[in-house]
Design brief:
The chain is of the alpha+beta class and 165 residues long. 40% of the residues lie in helices and 37% in strands. It has a domain at 26-119. Helix 1 (2-24) packs antiparallel against helix 2 (122-164). 24% of the residues are buried. Keywords: Membrane, Transmembrane, Transmembrane helix.
Length: 165
């Protein structure tokens, strides 16, 4: 029982972490100078990411009354061979489609992308960690309870045999 719960905990932990990373990763990517339509849901806490081998200066703009704000700190997500760094968050007034354009001033290979804010995916990691701790703990408690039940029943059976025998 303990082993089954431990394996389930590890699997759920892995699923929670991988699901969170996949949720953060940019789902819509574009090159410098491109204007893309991005579906934005403020509840999903959208963010703008950049993937570049070199440091670049950028200028991004968004339409429809949405605002772009600098991200607090530095958060990165590695997907495949691309390292995406979150640098902006999108503060949209309502759910809808918005035009986003980013331009870098230097000549460099740069990709931009729109995904979820790194901090918004903490729930998946937290639930995965809880599964990693709670499921094996529950399995251990069930194993201990089962062992105690067997020992108590065996002790009772021995006493009955000793009395009757």
């Amino acid at each position: 029982m303990f082993v089954v719960c431990a394996v389930a905990g590890v699997v759920l932990f892995g699923g929670g972490v991988l699901g969170s990373v996949a949720a953060m990763a940019p789902t819509k990517t574009f090159a410098s100078g491109e204007s893309v339509t991005v579906p934005v849901d403020p509840a999903a806490k959208p963010a703008v990411y950049i993937a570049s081998e070199t440091q670049v200066s950028y200028d991004c703009s968004i339409t429809g009354g949405a605002k772009l704000a600098k991200s607090a700190g530095t958060q990165t997500v590695t997907v495949g061979d691309a390292v995406w760094e979150q640098f902006l968050v999108i503060n949209a007034p309502a759910k809808g489609d918005y035009q986003l354009t980013c331009v870098n001033k230097e000549q460099a290979t740069v990709r931009y992308g729109v995904g979820r804010d790194v901090l918004s995916t903490v729930g998946g990691i937290t639930s995965g960690t809880a599964a990693l701790i709670l499921l094996p703990g529950a399995g251990l408690l069930a194993a201990i309870a089962g062992t105690l039940a067997v020992l108590i029943r065996r002790g009772g059976a021995r006493k009955r045999l000793a009395v009757s025998g």
